[in-house]
Amino acid sequence: MTRHWLTILMAVVLAGLGAYVYFVELPAERTKVQTATAAKKILPFEEREITAVTVRTDAGEVVLTRGEAQPWSMTAPIQTDADSREVDAMLRALAVGRVTRVVEEKAAALAPFGLEKPSVVLTVTAGTRRETLSLGDSGPISSTLYAMRDSDRQILLTDLAPKDFLNKTVQTFRKKEVLRFEQSQVDRLRLTYPTTEIVLYLVNQDEKKRWKVVFPIEAEADQAEVRGLLMMLEELKALGFIDPGPQRDALAKRLKKPGAKITVHVAGADQTVKLFQPDPASGEAYAGTTPEAPIYRINPSTIKDLTKELFALQDKRLLGVSRDEIARLVVKTREEQYVLLNRTHANIGWVLEDQPNEKLDQQAVALLVSRVADLPAELRVVKQAGPLAPYGLSSPTAEFTATGKDGKTKGRLVLGTRTGGLVYAMGQGLTGIYQARSDILTQIPAKRDLIAKAPQDKASTP
User: pTM of this prediction?
Assistant: First the structure.
């Protein structure tokens, strides 16, 4: 019986020790860890809680506030939209920043740490809470800064990187996009130049949205080229700002005739930007939107990038008909001629017109049709076709004629003399004479190579 009581007593003691550790020691340790972690944080609140920040430097003071919809705006020294990415990047660096060492508990001499005249003073607001942080010189190792909070006046060595906080100006925090739109919302595009105008519409075609040129000609657009142009417009950023006032008024008098005017139609409204380069030798270029907006300084190369001629924007496929619309394709080279008929609607595939019962290598035929239909012009030689002999087009190296499902000729492609890696070409899809990639000349299969090989033929092929 005595042994049983001893066992029970030991169990009670162990249970008591376990309860003490669980209810006393572990919470105390967790509190200690949490306190130590909090002590290492520079700010007493989280990034998502921040509603305003003031950045004060020798250059002046910038006040930034966050609205209910989360975008940042600048309220001083001017009222305008802020560059949310710049603001968020700075606050994120501040929120994740840590104190690596408390250098002095109570600041006595500030000058040795660059805090007597701090490089930057940040006042961060989170609802009703506020903290002011002064940033001084770089620490003993790279990517560190000395700092001091107004709340405790401790001199801290932090892991804040100088690049995230120093040399920030009004321009740093201003929204720099000249136009405000999303490419997916644009359905019209108008390019106006001193001598011409190009208009494009986004239309529904075969259950897909595709860009089309509607002026000065009606033609398919080069989808990738139009999307690239819209991307450049969406990312057009100011290098500087000339705000409304005497300086802007004086500059506006010099900017009379734009080199280009581009209008995007977004969500039922137009946004227009005018591009100017009054003196190309000066290396300066400007963009203007509305009379109330600033005039923006932009990179001069932007004007060249955004100035697109019709050839660049229209579909440059030479044949003039898509592969899906071809019912009959005549292939003619200097060695032979054959005609392919599209019988895919009858689940037969492509066949030779003069040998309809001959089984063809459908993959080889589809590849040929694709190459012919999708061959793009690389360079324009002349806008209007004139004498053809100089380009070898009067006696072509190869010629393709495509008939549509309605029995009418829909496309024609003629290839002439090869020069370097290009070949002179002329097609129904584009007016004029062009150069295209010459490798298509080596990719035209002979008639016999289109005929599918029997299994025994494949086995005997070396």
Answer: 0.76
Report residue 443 CA to chain centroid gap: 35
Q: In 3D, which of 99, 131, 138, 141 has the Cα closest to residue 115? A: 138
CATH class entry, domain 183-313:
alpha beta
Tell me if residue 60 falls in helix, strand or coil.
strand
Question: Contact at 8 Å (CB) between 322 and 373?
Answer: yes
Query: How far is it, in rounded angstroms, from Cα 270 to Cα 449?
Result: 55
Taking alpha carbons only, the member of 274, 294, 296 closest to residue 80 is 294
How many of the other CB atoms lie within 10 Å of CB of 401? 18
Which residues, listed in sequence order, are joined to residue 66 by a DSSP beta bridge? 72
Output the pLDDT for position 37: 35
Every domain of the chain with CATH number 3.30.1490 lies at: 183-313
Handedness of CA 103, 107, 113, 119 (dihedral sign): positive
pLDDT of residue 205: 80
Give tens-digit pLDDT for 14-39.
665 655 445 544 443 333 333 333 45
Q: Report the pLDDT averaged over residues 271-276.
A: 97
**Which 3-state string (H, E, C) describes 164-232?**
HCCCCCHHHHECCECCCCCHHHEEEEEEECCCCEEEEEEEEECCEEEEEEEECCCEEECHHHHHHHHHH
Please report, for residues 221, 319, 398, 402, 444, the alpha-carbon distance to residue 410 in angstroms, rounded to integers and kept in the order given. Answer: 18, 8, 18, 6, 20
Supply the DSSP symbol for 446.
Answer: -
**For 105-135, how does the pLDDT look when each residue is reduced to its tens digit (9 = 90+)?**
987 899 999 999 999 999 999 999 999 999 9
- Helices of type H across 283-332: 300-306, 310-313
CB proximity list for 304: less than 8 A, separation 6 or greater: none
* Contact partners, residue 166, CB within 8 Å, separation at least 6: 119, 120, 135
